[in-house]
């Protein structure tokens, strides 16, 4: 779905509920799903196990941004994955 289509659909839904107001797209970035990343992810998991002595922890937050720096690689078909420290700014 294009950004324009998404904006149009959201406007229609909001207005159909009688809320009034205006919907404006002010920032949009495409997200990309990494393709053929399995060998890279396997290497990351193996390295983590060797260095830390335990498996990679699961993603600890329900909010995951679709924009990552690796998107520029995934967009052109270069297998890429994100690995790093978790976001600890939230208080749970």
List the helices and strands and how they pair.
Blueprint: H1 3-16, H2 38-52, H3 71-75
Number of domains: 2
Count of helical regions: 3
How widely separated are the two ends? Answer: 34 Å
How many β strands by DSSP?
0
**Rg measurement, Å:** 19 Å
Protein described:
By secondary structure, the chain is mainly alpha-helical. The protein folds into 2 domains: 30 residues, no CATH class; 51 residues, no CATH class. Helices cover 37% and strands 0% of the residues. The protein is elongated, with a radius of gyration of 19 Å.
Which short descriptors sum up this protein?
37% helix; elongated; 2 domains; 92 residues; mainly alpha
What does this entry show, briefly?
The chain has 92 residues and is an all-alpha fold. The chain has three helices and no strands. The model has no long low-confidence stretch (mean pLDDT 82).
